[in-house]
Design a protein that fits this description.
The protein is of the alpha+beta class. It is about 35% helix and about 20% strand. The longest helix is centred in the middle third of the chain and has 37 residues. It is elongated, with a radius of gyration of 23 Å. The chain starts with about 25 loop residues before the first helix and ends with a strand. The structure holds zinc ion.
């Protein structure tokens, strides 16, 4: 087995062979660096999703269910390809979740928007 080194600073490790870090400081710095990488990589998609939710929230106001023109969302900059989930209702309509909101194609030009009821 190769002599183990600290994943973060590459210092040779003493003692237990299953150790990955030379110190708690290296462990913390390594985990911090990992989190930063993920943060940067997901930032753009998170922004699209958050923006989509804002658009739905503004259009729906206090409605729990609303029929609207697709073009309204398009003009607001809605990104239809970004969603947080999909479900089919009893009529087999496909709803696209954006967090606590969802939209489904009602006709070619119309969308049904729904907001999940508060818990
Ligand atoms: Zn180290």
């Amino acid at each position: 087995m190769a002599s183990s080194i600290c994943i973060f600073c590459k210092a040779t490790l003493q003692g237990r062979s299953d150790k990955k870090f030379c110190s708690i400081n290296c462990k913390n710095q390594y985990n911090y660096a990992l989190r930063q990488t993920t943060k940067d990589e997901v930032k753009e998609i998170d922004a699209y999703l958050h923006r989509n939710r804002e658009i739905l929230s503004v259009i729906m106001g206090n409605y729990k269910k609303l029929l609207t023109q697709k073009v309204v969302l398009e003009r607001a900059g809605f990104r239809f390809e970004y969603m947080t989930g999909i479900y089919h209702n009893k009529e087999n309509k496909r709803f696209h979740y954006v967090y606590d909101y969802a939209w489904a194609e009602f006709t070619n030009q119309e969308l049904m928007l729904v907001k999940k009821s508060d818990k």
